[in-house]
Design brief:
The protein is α+β, with helices and mostly antiparallel strands and 500 residues long. It has 16 helices and 12 strands. The longest helix is centred in the N-terminal third of the chain and has 33 residues.
Length: 500
């Protein structure tokens, strides 16, 4: 009897599921008949287009599909419908000219797990507007893009070169030292202090951030975003949650220490400024304020992670390219010696170092460290490029397709500093240089990151020549990235040989 009942229920569920799939297919076709939606490969039930893309290098797969389906197309990642924007003109027009319509953040299940829609990177609405406005103002107040930041970066350059000198020209992995240096710049703004490179708490925070960013872009987490019920069964998800919670506790501890010594009359850092604003709002009995502990912790976590990993990774790529292309390194060092000599490079020197500036820009372009930006979402129904895109649709602005756009770059797949130089050797800006994204969701620390990359890179190139380890040729240096949420160099060692 129970067996018959079970068979009946199983058949019933099968029939319901079949009807549901038919309904979805019919709804999809009927709506497409009414409104012209972006084209794309035909999806399979449940799987969507998963069999037509490589989750280990999704940006490349989508770039290839754009060549077949055009600059605005649809893919289904499982049941999740995604509209992909490809090519410089298409992405710039969407993010800048239609900033409002394409300006919301898609909070995927893993991003929700991280932030619960608090903080800056993975939030929307009034809370996001308030936190981003506050962060921009406060970062500027503490010197982002100004002389105050320059002084902090130059001080950190000294510590970084000392770290490199310890290896006396022998091959070593520079990943940690570079990440500690870039992390100390954002730490100085966030907490009013730098950390020693050997501080175990600092080391653990940087390492956990680095690991979390790598895991976030792994194939298993992309699958988790499509089928969230899988979370507890996935080792990467469990490791991610552990990392995030541990860093959150460390961040709360740092904030608690600052709170104990808070003087609202003298704000030492970002955290002090936030706590003072929070106190003032509480005293005025203003209800529904966005200045609460969750927004503070997650804003600091967002800025710490973004200010550490992306800048650190860019610098690693810059040095790897120098070791890979020694003639380019020769020209950079010749220009630095001729224009600056042995004195400390300053931000104001940039305009007299066109070749060096071009090399930095080309390194950022080719490294393409955030290939799909952070996913967007449409805030309202929008008609774009002749297609109807419904409110709430996930949108991938494919930055790979901008930085490697064949209609914008003469040789998009090769390292070519001439992309940023005119015939007289003067530096030229290129509109399709968009590593920081664009529009409302562009990287809010762009001016700080640009200053860091320039000062760290030039200071290191003044002091050291970067070469492959003994027994390894330039040709053997591997430029294949490790794919995570951002693209990082494969594990490698370089020699930093003193020039003086």
């Amino acid at each position: 009897m129970f067996e018959n009942l079970f068979q009946f229920l199983f058949s019933l569920l099968g029939a319901i599921f079949g009807l549901l799939v038919l309904h979805l297919i019919y709804s999809s076709f009927s709506s497409q008949n009414k409104r012209r939606e972006p084209p794309g490969p035909k999806p399979l039930p449940l799987l969507g287009n998963l069999l037509q893309v490589d989750l280990k290098r999704l940006d490349r797969s989508l770039f290839d599909l754009s060549k077949k389906y055009g600059p605005v197309f649809t893919v289904y990642l499982g049941l999740k419908k995604v509209v992909v924007l490809a090519g410089y003109r298409t992405i710039k027009q969407a993010l800048v000219n239609h900033a409002e319509e394409f300006g919301d953040r898609e909070v995927t299940p893993i991003f929700y797990d991280f932030n619960k829609e608090h903080g800056i990177l993975f939030s929307n609405g009034d809370s996001w507007k308030e936190m981003r406005r506050f962060a921009l103002t406060t970062l500027r107040d503490f010197g982002m893009g100004k002389r105050l930041s320059e002084r902090k970066i130059l001080e950190e350059c000294h510590y970084l070169t000392e770290e490199f000198e310890q290896y006396e020209g022998k091959a070593f992995d520079n990943t940690q030292a570079i990440c500690y240096a870039s992390s100390n710049i954002i730490s100085a703004i966030m907490f009013g202090k730098r950390f020693e490179y050997k501080d175990p708490v600092f080391q653990a925070m940087v390492e956990k951030d680095h690991e979390s960013i790598r895991l976030t872009g792994s194939a298993s987490i992309l699958i988790y975003n499509m089928f969230p019920w899988l979370g507890p069964f996935l080792k990467n998800w469990r490791d991610l949650m552990k990392n995030v919670e541990e860093n959150k506790e460390k961040m709360k501890s740092i904030i608690a220490d600052l709170k104990e010594t808070l003087n609202p009359e003298v704000c030492r850092c970002f955290v002090d400024t936030f706590l003072t604003r929070k106190l003032n709002l509480e005293e005025s009995e203003l209800k529904d304020s966005h200045f609460h502990d969750d927004n503070l912790v997650h804003s600091v976590l967002n800025l710490f992670a973004a200010g550490t990993d992306t800048t650190g990774n860019t610098l690693q790529w810059c040095l790897l390219f120098m070791a890979k292309y020694p003639r380019v390194q020769d020209q950079v060092q010749e220009e630095l010696s001729r224009v600056v000599g042995r004195r400390q490079v300053r931000v104001e020197d940039r305009k007299y170092l066109p070749y060096t500036d071009a090399v930095i820009h080309e390194s950022q372009r080719l490294a393409n460290i955030v290939p799909m930006a952070i996913p967007h979402k449409t805030s309202q129904d929008v008609n774009y490029k002749g297609y109807f895109i419904q409110q709430g649709t996930t949108v991938f602005p494919l930055l790979t397709s901008v930085l490697y756009d064949e209609s914008e770059w003469e040789s998009p797949n090769t390292f070519n500093p001439s992309h940023f130089l005119d015939k007289e050797g003067k530096f030229i800006r290129r509109d399709a240089f968009m590593p920081f994204s664009a529009g409302r969701r562009a990287c809010l620390g762009e001016s700080l990151a640009r200053m860091e990359i320039f000062l760290f890179f030039t200071s290191l190139l003044q002091r050291f020549r970067f070469t492959p380890p003994p027994g390894v040729t330039e040709d053997e240096l591997d430029l294949t990235p490790v794919v995570g949420f951002i693209l990082t160099p494969s594990h490698h060692e370089l020699c930093a040989v003193s020039r003086h």
